[in-house]
Amino acid sequence: MKLRIDNLPVSLGASVLHWLAVFFVAIVCGAVTAGCFVGQWFGGGDLPQIAYISSDGQHAQAWISEPGGDDPVSISPPNAVAKSIRWSPEQRYLAWVAGGDVPLLMLYDIETKETQLLVSGVDESQPPVWAPEADRIAYVSDAADSPDIYMVELGTGDQTRLTFSDEREKIGDWSPDGQWLVFTQEGRDGLLLRNPTGVNLIELTDGQDDNPLWSPKGDRIAFLRDTGEGQDIYVLRPTKDDWADDTDELAVADTEYDETDPSWSGDGRRLAFVVHFDDQSEIFTVLVDGSERKQLTYNTANDLMPDWSQSGDKIVFVSLAYGNPEILYMNRDGTEQTRLTTSEGADTQPDW
After folding, report:
1. Which residues, 6 or more positions from 14, have their beta carbon under 8 angstroms from its beta carbon?
2. Segment holding 233, helix H or strand E
3. SS3 labels along 97-121
4. In whole angstroms, what is the distance from residue 172 CA to residue 90 CA?
5. Three-state secondary-structure class, residue 331
6. pLDDT digits over 318-338, tens only?
7. What is the arithmetic mean of pLDDT over 147-157?
8. 28 φ, ψ to 5°?
9. Cβ-count burial of 236 within 10 angstroms (0-12 exposed, 13-18 middle, 19+ buried)?
10. Please, which residues have CB within 8 angstroms of residue 100's CB and are 6 or more apart in sequence?
11. What does the buried/exposed string (b/e) look like for 79-99 if buried means 16 or more CB atoms within 10 Å of the residue's CB?
């Protein structure tokens, strides 16, 4: 059963307070002068850059590193509290969230080395979500006294409110054709779709579902379902060409242990994910029909947060094999596991 509701889009003006913008720009300018903001296009490696967060317990910085290239470079000030980071399509920009009393959505331009404040008052627990054309970013904010989903235009800074519930929304992913945002709502079962213009709410599923992620071709959505006995990974697809029609659900990873962190391969044929055993967590892959399940890591330590390279031949992940969380990458079959970071802090949230 599907529920469809039409709403009119509501456009918001810029919500950034003048004094906050001026204050932050002053900090950034001072950081640039002091050499805190450093940007460069890495050379020497054959693989795309990996963005990640590194924390020492008090501060957390946003970093970029190229496997086999130069030393990693921080794009945030040393006293920042970076909460999440996401590449834009084609890796031109990095969107990252700076935590604090007033969390900020920041934009870093790889080519110009410039940092821009986009929005203040965002939900620091949720990473930003890029539109496929890299011209818009979706985020969650309580600017209207309820945590709703908004969209900001990079060219103009204009913000549009997309959801209007009193309940907290958790943003999932943007469809590759740019037509839909998939998300969940606190206190309500199932995955929901909303047009990025703020109209046409569609109910996709009715389970205790979370963490939806669109396939690169846009023909499937992977998500987590709490079955009451644990978390399993499902794949959803429309029975016709329209997501408003009926859909099919398939459990592609439904072992006795919890599974999390689904990540699509570049060709959309395989998912990487984490299985949480009693004593450690390991990374697996599986085809979208649930066949050819393969275990990739055997590190007798927690291996987490897998993310495919765009080419689909490598997977980056977080491992506790060295004690503290470090970032490693490997071939798609689990071979040639290589350590990327060697910091004393916790390196997490790799995005390739």
Report:
1. 157, 158, 159
2. strand 231-238
3. EECCCCCEEEEEECCCCCEEEEEEC
4. 20
5. strand
6. 999 999 999 999 999 999 999
7. 94
8. -60, -45
9. buried
10. 81, 124
11. ebbbbbbbbbeebebbbbbbb
Would strands 148-153 and 136-141 be described as parallel, antiparallel, or unpaired? antiparallel
Asked whether 283 and 302 are in contact (CB, 8 A), the reply is no
Give the contacts of 258 (CB within 8 A, at least 6 positions apart). 230, 231, 275, 276
Structural tokens at position 323: 């004690």
- Separation of alpha carbons 326 and 232, rounded Å: 26
Q: What is the pLDDT of residues 245-288, one digit of tens each?
A: 889 999 999 888 999 999 999 999 999 999 999 999 999 999 99
> Token match 């007033």: residue?
102
Place of tokens 């590449």: 87
CA–CA gap between residue 229 and residue 220 (Å, rounded): 25
Q: CB–CB of 349/84 below 8 Å?
A: yes
159: nearest Cα among 344, 12, 313, 336 = 12
Token match 């689904």: residue? 262
| Separation of alpha carbons 83 and 108, rounded Å | 15
User: How many other C-beta atoms are found inside a 10 Å radius of the C-beta of residue 61?
Assistant: 24
State the Cα–Cα distance between residues 324 and 219, nearest whole angstrom: 38
User: Which tens digit of pLDDT belongs to each residue from 29-84?
Assistant: 333 333 232 222 333 346 899 999 999 988 999 999 999 888 899 999 989 999 99
* Residue 118 near residue 139, CB atoms below 8 Å: no
Residue given tokens 């800074």 in the structure block: 157
Distance CA 66, CA 330 (A): 14
Instruction: Classify each residue of 1-37 as buried b or exposed e, where b means 16 or more C-beta atoms within 10 Å of its C-beta.
Output: eeeeeeeeeeeeeeebeeeeeeebeeebeebbeeebb
**Cα torsion at 308, 309, 315, 317 (round to 10°)?**
-80
Spatial separation of the C-alpha atoms in residues 327 and 303, rounded to whole Å: 10
